[in-house]
Amino acid sequence: MPRDYYEVLGVGRDADEGQIKKSFRRLARELHPDQNPDNPEAEDRFKELAEAYEVLSDRDRRRLYDSYGHDGLRGGGYSPNFDGGSFSDLFSAFFGGGGFDAAFGRGRAAGADVAVGVDIDLEEAAEGASVEVSFDAPVRCHTCNGNGATPGTPIVTCERCGGQGRLQAISRTPFGQVARTIACDVCDGAGRVPEEPCTTCRGAGLVQETQTLSVDIPAGIEDGQRIRLSGRGGINSPSGPPGDLYLTVRIRPDERFVRDGDHLITVLDVPFALAALGATLSVDTLDGEHDVEIVPGTQSGEVITLREKGMPRLRGGRRGDLRVVVNPVTPRKLDRKQRELLERFSESLHDGNDAAEESMLAKLRRLVSRA
Ligand SMILES: [Zn+2]
Ligand SMILES: [Zn+2]
To answer: Ligand 2 centroid vs 191 CA: distance in angstroms?
Structure first.
């Protein structure tokens, strides 16, 4: 039993003609053969969609279906059959000769989008940077200036289409013969062809070229963020508009800082005696060295927050913080003198040395949740 047609089209039972058409076009766009090469599922789904549209867009068939369902349609003589012709033919039968591009307003002339990546340091991400990016993109041929002819040779009327740029193609589809207009395969729709094609671009008017561009990266950018440079991509036709350049920014891992949104986290090793005695130590920040106060009795995993020493915000506003996680370092080796001192120190310890009552959970939080 076929699925419910309203369900297939994703519309309510009271949908009007316009809604049905709109929904059909939207779903068909996703299933277009060019978007789904070698995907038999897309073809099957398109057939199902086409059948639903065939019925619901026709007043009589829809009335029949509403009253009697699929059986009513069969009884009324409607029998969908989309098994002849190719998927492309079938699609064209619905959307006419221009196919996908014409149907959805995406002309051949639309530009060629280009994606490129760049790696920067954390400092550059913090301060903003100007980077050079290189990428290959199609540009207008310099030899023929895009007209595809060897300089000084004429451009003549295309014999195949008689200068129309278009050809009539008859294809057999499940709905009978459909005449459609297609772009001329010789002149590619231009109606004119060079008598002697340009040897640089073989008549295409386009060549692939490496381009270098300087791009400003804003301060505060995050790893993996994409910058779109409108109109800085390539072209798909010599007279067409350029596409966009998409620059993905990757930030190299930094040895000193881990980033947490706008905040940075670093670890400060403190000799265990100084953690007990207290000290002023120096810590690396993005703006250079900065003094931090280690209060006497500082515990492992305690955090000192340096306000606004983190990353700037992309859209402005207060900078993030630098969180300094204190790591008291236990000496791994002791000489005899030190061992004696520590033994004497250890013997001197009493309950009063650990005055603060801290629950096991509080200790776990301090030690585990910071990383
Ligand atoms: Zn050329
Ligand atoms: Zn032609």
So the answer is: 5
User: Minimum-distance ligand to the CA of 202?
Assistant: 1
Per 3-state DSSP, the chain is made up of helix, strand and coil in percentages (nearest 5) of 30, 30, 45
**How would residue 166 be classed by pLDDT, with cut points 50, 70 and 90?**
confident
Residue 164 Cα to ligand 2 middle (Å): 7
CA distance 45 to 180: 24
Examine the domain organization and report whether 127 and 218 are in the same domain. Answer: yes
Q: 188 CA to middle of ligand 1, Å?
A: 16
Q: Which domain holds residue 303?
A: 258-368
Number of structural domains, the chain?
3
d(CA 143, CA 10) in angstroms, rounded, equals: 52
Indicate which ligand has the atom closest to the C-alpha of 150. Answer: 1
Distance CA 91, CA 83 (A): 12
pTM: 0.59
In whole angstroms, what separates CA 37 from the centre of its chain? Answer: 21
Which of 204, 184, 213, 68 shows the shortest CA–CA distance to 143?
204
Is 29 inside a domain boundary? yes
CA of 206 to the centre of ligand 2 (A): 18
pLDDT of the residue at 249:
95
Q: Which ligand is nearest to the CA of 182?
A: 2
Please check whether residues 79 and 134 belong to one and the same domain.
no
> Does 67 fall in a domain?
yes
End residue of a domain, out of 231, 251, 271: 251
Closest CA to 326 of 345, 349, 303: 303
Specify the CATH number for the domain of residue 322: 2.60.260.20
For 99, residues 6+ apart whose C-beta sits below 8 A from its C-beta are 88, 91, 92, 182
What separation in Å is there between the alpha carbon of 140 and the centre of ligand 1?
A: 8
CA nearest neighbour of 122 among 260, 268, 304: 260
Residues 234 and 359 in one domain: no
- The bound ligand whose nearest atom lies closest to the alpha carbon of 157 is 2
Q: Report CA(140)–ligand 2 centroid distance (Å).
A: 21
Phi then psi for residue 346, to 5 deg, are -60, -40
Q: Residues 75-130: pLDDT tens digits?
A: 766 766 666 566 766 676 666 544 444 444 334 457 888 999 999 999 999 999 99
